[in-house]
Amino acid sequence: MRHVKKKNGVVGQLQPLIIALVAVGIVLAVGFLIMAEIAANTTVAADGNATAAINETRDAIAEIPGWLSIIVITVIGALLLGLVQLFRTR
User: Fold this and answer.
1) Contact (Cβ atoms closer than 8 angstroms) between residue 10 and residue 2
2) Considering 9, 54, 57, 77, which has the largest number of Cβ atoms within 10 A of its Cβ?
3) 21-36 burial, b for 16+ CB within 10 Å, e for fewer?
4) Residue 89 burial (C-beta neighbours within 10 Å; 0-12, 13-18, 19+)
5) How many CB atoms lie within 10 A of CB 10?
6) Does 11 score more than 70 pLDDT?
7) Is the pLDDT confidence value at 86 over 70?
């Protein structure tokens, strides 16, 4: 409880997590753009194995953005619980 002496302490502890979530979102967006460009390449499109590998990789990566919303909701819930606990102890 000594880490949570002020409201700023609760928000400050979540800042690295928020930065990490934004970084993951940006990396995923760039990854999807790169995969789309590779799939549009005529050499890759002509090779069946390469096309299957691109599609399988794209499908595997496509599940990750669905988890980001759950993580954000969890972070917001942790922030609210921390603030409620802070005000309850006063």
Assistant:
1) no
2) 54
3) eeeeeeeeeeeeeebe
4) exposed
5) 19
6) no
7) yes
Give the span between the Cα atoms of 76 and 83, in whole angstroms.
11
| Amino acid in the structure at residue 13 | Q
Q: Is the pTM of this model over 0.85?
A: no
Q: How many CB atoms lie within 10 A of CB 8?
A: 9
Sign of CA dihedral 41, 42, 47, 48: positive
Please, are residues 86 and 14 in contact by the beta-carbon 8 Å criterion? no
Report the distance separating Cα 80 and Cα 5, nearest Å: 15
Residue 6 has pLDDT above 70, yes or no: no
Q: How confident is the model at residue 1 (pLDDT cuts 50, 70, 90)?
A: very low
